[in-house]
Amino acid sequence: MLTAGIDMGSKFIKTLVLKDGMVLGKAIVPTGFEPSASASKCLEQAASEAEVDISSIDHITSTGAGRKAASEANTDITDVGAAAKGVAELIPEARTVIDVGAEDGRGIKTEADGKVVDFAVNEKCAAGAGAFAEAMSRALEVTLEEFGNLSLKSDKTIPMNAQCAVFAESEVVSLVHAKTPKEDIARAVHDAIASRVVSMVRRVGINESVALVGGLSHNPGFVDAINRGLETQVVIPDNPEFVGALGAAIVAGERNK
Amino acid sequence: MAEYETEPLKCWQKAKELRLKYYKDYQDARDKGGLRWTGGAWSFDAIPAGLGHDVHNITGEPYGASLAFDKKLSMECLEAAEAKGWARDLCSYMRNYWGSMYLEKFAFGGEYPEPDFCFQDHICCSHAKWYQHVAEYKKVPYFCIDVSVGPYKDLDESRLMFVVNQMHESIEWLEKVTGRKYQDELLIEAVENETRSTSAWAEICCLNMAKPAPLDEKSMYSLYVHGTLAKHSKEIADFYEELRDEVKYRVDNNIAAVPDERCRLMSDTQPPWGFLKVFRYLEKFGAISIGSLYTFGLIGIWETKPDGTWGPRTTPMQKGETITSRDQALRILADWNLSKPEWQHFYDPNLKTEMMLQIVRQWQLDGVMLHLNRGCEGLSCGIMENRLGIAEAGVPVMTFEGNMGDEREFDEKRVMTRIDSFMETLGMEMLESSVSS
Ligand code: SF4
């Protein structure tokens, strides 16, 4: 059976084509201002990499913030359900899933088959998500990759007290003016994001093992901060940004039966 | 094909008329030689009732909710309050109310009808300050009764008398500021009506244990409101008894509020009034909110029955008691109100968790939706503790953030997505009829 999952993230759309549990192709494109058109493009790219025709895909399931805009999808599933499903496939022993994307963070408590028992999602504030790291890297005039690595060079803890992204940014500006080394600022920012994520995840309870997925898991500074915050080592699958799309593609298979 | 039969409530029109009449009576009171007063929904409205049948009140919280329901007017009111320098994190009913007062705009048409006096009681931080400001702004006298004597389970004679003595004092004050002679028989009548109306409301809520539930919470909002307007009035007590009989008829005849009921939930705290569509959205999954501690216990008065279940508190009349004096009436009124479920958790969030779990078990619910209401510190206080307690008891629970009276703090798309996730967690899929619609 051929299925596909489309994860309509706020920043990127990720698509994955699956044949009987095997990933045949995947693609990622910026969401842009026309998410529906971007989703079509992303699906085409993934299908082309998989060397299949879109019309031959038995069932397509979308997920993500803009999941209703994926016109090719037959059904949809929430980000929470898709992330839990994807992690159950890749890291079956995980009972806590942390999914941090550009604008959203989620903590999910799961059972063996990826069934969601409880979840917590960040509120309107972006201070606990990837967009904040990106904005702060811009403020420090370094690339996002550099920003993640920079923070590993610091062992200083500078608390950031602001609860909101805007005030946190002004704290960063103050640190820049105080000539604080960039690596210390980078670590402070990642610690601040991680502490918001950790307190959100603690709401659902932390059961080992803990899987970390979503785009922000590529950022080593954030991963280090979250490991310290949780006092455990999170497990990150390959291609963590595709876990939602994978979960959606698996659900597509279940729904096509 | 829907699972159950449904039909509109026969009392609906009457409920609407009663509510509009209440505001009109207040508006017209002065022209008819009567008196107008303002205070909270929890004020002891039975006390000013002793000044005469031509004394009418307006309670701030339901009035704030009416303003919030009208998004355009609400925004004007909130901005007017902010222009005076009030912070956005204050009680949003209070800010709406003050805005309406500053703008001299009444939600039911015409100018804000200024009161002759303010009469309030105080358990939440906003209560006393709300009408202190109204009194200063409108230059009218103000009396406030402090009811923060601890939870009902710890009530003793001295705590009760702390409230009763203030009530006695308030009557002397009312006579002084209005120049009217106080009539104890009107107080007694009002206390009898109040015990009747608030116990009848609890009885109505109990009928919602039936499957399918005869009432959904969105409809209950339009019905419990009468108790928040004038719980002491004969009209409201009679109306609740009539409503109770109708709801009983619905139960006996399997008439459902939601024709496809297959999942029963409860909510908590006031809803975001500008977005009651949240409850309609639940119906797409065949889910119904059967009420909440808020709708049940804001004005409903309850007691634990010998078998451990929750039920309507037995009124003095049902016990065969006759109220013959002012002091006896005030003692009953104080004791009755101090047992109000929604007053208990001001002292300890665990008391609220226990009451919520009681509802979950007794009303046979599948999950709980908590509104983290940024507009009400009083009822949101400790709500994350409640979440924890409910989750630890193994009951599925979700939270969503919003504000009962300030739509700027409600993110509709995000909340609906969260409901989708919660429904998935409960194993609920959208009904076929809703997917295609
Ligand atoms: S309990 Fe809530 S609604 Fe009532 S005055 Fe306090 S903050 Fe306002």
In short:
Chain A has 257 residues and is of the alpha/beta class.
Count of domains of chain B? 1
Number-wise, the strands of chain A total 9
Kindly state the percentage of residues in helix of chain B.
40-55%
Per DSSP, what share of the residues of chain A sits in E-state strands of 2 or more residues? 15-25%
| H/E series of chain B | EHEEHHHEHEHHHHEEHEHEEHHHEHHEHH
Oligomer: heterodimer
| Span of the ends, CA to CA of chain B | 15 Å
* Major beta-sheet overview of chain A: 5 strands, mixed
Uncertain segments of chain A are none
Major sheet strand order of chain B: 3-2-4-5
Model regions low in confidence, pLDDT < 50 over at least 5 residues of chain B: none
Mean pLDDT across the residues of chain A is 90
Determine the most extensive contact between two protein chains. A-B, 16 and 18 residues
Protein architecture, described:
The complex is a heterodimer of chains A (257) and B (437). Chain A has 257 residues and is of the alpha/beta class. Chain A has two domains: 1-91 and 242-257, Nucleotidyltransferase, domain 5, CATH 3.30.420.40; 92-236, Nucleotidyltransferase, domain 5. Chain A has helices at 35-50, 79-90, 130-139, 144-150, 165-177, 182-204, 220-230, 243-256; strands at 2-8, 12-19, 22-30, 59-63, 75-76, 96-100, 105-110, 116-121, 210-213. In chain A, the strands form two sheets. In chain A, strands 3-2-1-4-5 form a five-stranded mixed beta sheet. A four-stranded mixed beta sheet of chain A has the order 8-7-6-9, sandwiched between helices. In chain A, a hairpin with a 3-residue loop joins strand 1 and strand 2. The longest helix of chain A has 23 residues, at 182-204. The termini of chain A are close together. By secondary structure, chain B is of the alpha/beta class. Helix content of chain B is 51%, strand content 13%. Chain B is globular. The longest helix of chain B is centred in the middle third of the chain and has 24 residues, at 184-207. Chain B has helices at residues 12-28, 60-69, 71-83, 92-103, 125-138, 157-178, 184-207, 217-230, 234-252, 277-283, 293-297, 326-338, 341-344, 349-362, 377-380, 383-392, 412-425, 432-436, and strands at 5-6, 35-39, 55-59, 117-122, 142-146, 255-256, 263-268, 287-292, 302-304, 310-312, 367-373, 397-402. Chain B has one domain (5-436). The model of chain B has no long low-confidence stretch (mean pLDDT 95). Chain B has a four-stranded parallel beta sheet, sandwiched between helices. Chain B contains 18 helices and twelve strands. Classes of the chains: A alpha/beta (257), B alpha/beta (437). The interface between A and B is medium-sized, with 16 and 18 residues. Bound molecules: iron/sulfur cluster (SF4). Residues 61, 91, 93-94, 124, 126-127, 376-379 of chain B line the site of iron/sulfur cluster.
